Amino acid sequence: NQKVVLITGCSSGIGLALAARIAKDEKKRFMVYATMRNLGKGEALVEAAGRTLGRTLEIKQLDVCDEVSIKACVDSLPERRVDILISNAGMGLIGPIECQSIDEMKTVMDTNFFGLVRLLKEILPDMKRRKKGHIVVISSVMGIQGILFNDVYAASKFAVEGFCESLAVQALRFNLNISLIEPGPVITEFERKVYEEGMKTDLSKADKVTADMFTNIYLKNYSQIFDTLGQTPEDIAEHTCKIITMDDPPFRHQTNTLYTPMTTLKYADPNGDLPIDTFYKMVFEHDKVFNTSLNFLKLLRWRSRKSFTLEKTEKDKN
Ligand code: NAD
Fold first, then answer.
1. How do residues 135-162 score in pLDDT, each as one tens digit?
2. Ligand 1, residues 63, 186, 225, 256: which to mutate, most atoms within 8 A of Cβ?
């Protein structure tokens, strides 16, 4: 009676932590197909998987930008069955849009948004037929709120959220669940790759004010934001694991309580100005306010460490 879990992007970060965590489930409730674009990068997962490899975990090739590889992977599963799909593969992009090519932007949309669409085109019809399944998508807080110099990345995650919100109504008709996991900053390869690419940005196409804003404000504070707010991939895996074991999983789940005050601003003001003004003040008015906010967030972090729970799970227990 094991549930079949298919996860994308498992060679590093959240995908790797998720695959290992779910495969190591004490009650052996899951059979995990951990997929990655390049099987040559499977070493870290093999190590993390330990004795679960060949038992509750198998590694398979899947590139979310390649329909043929998705079909081949799903066809290779017993009865093509996927009970829980975790769409995790993704990439970031930071910098002023003047300095980014349309091709670079398309790659982000193709991976983060169309990657999910391709997976669902292959897997959703079977789930509908079986009237059983849970689609879990690793989105981001940037799926509900834009962040300075993350324009295209945020757009790709907004696309994911709009797509899922629309599908969720149809899914209910087939007894299927969709859940969006919305982490804040997570300390993974993603952070390093995005930062390194950001550092390499050719800023000659941007005006001086924009270039300065990117280099001296955004990049300068980048690692501090991850140091202060960052969760580990294992944290995200733990949250996701709880979501997939719930009887009535939520549509949205934010993993970082430190972030909730920011996202709440969005819902507090129908005009949409409140979060934008607040971000503006945090960033530009000025280091003092910024540091104060960071200190405030540090305090919250300390508090939230003590109260790591999922409200709904707590309720379920009672
Ligand atoms: P990561 O870079 O370690 O992992 C992303 C994985 O996706 C990599 O293993 C990469 O090889 C894989 N991938 C990229 N393109 C692919 C493709 N075409 N086919 C298959 N796999 C592909 O970073 P991560 O932080 O673990 O990111 C995982 C997910 O979490 C992403 O969707 C990301 O947007 C989301 N996320 C990350 C953060 C963060 O701060 N790190 C925050 C919120 C959400």
1. 999 999 999 999 999 999 999 999 999 9
2. 186
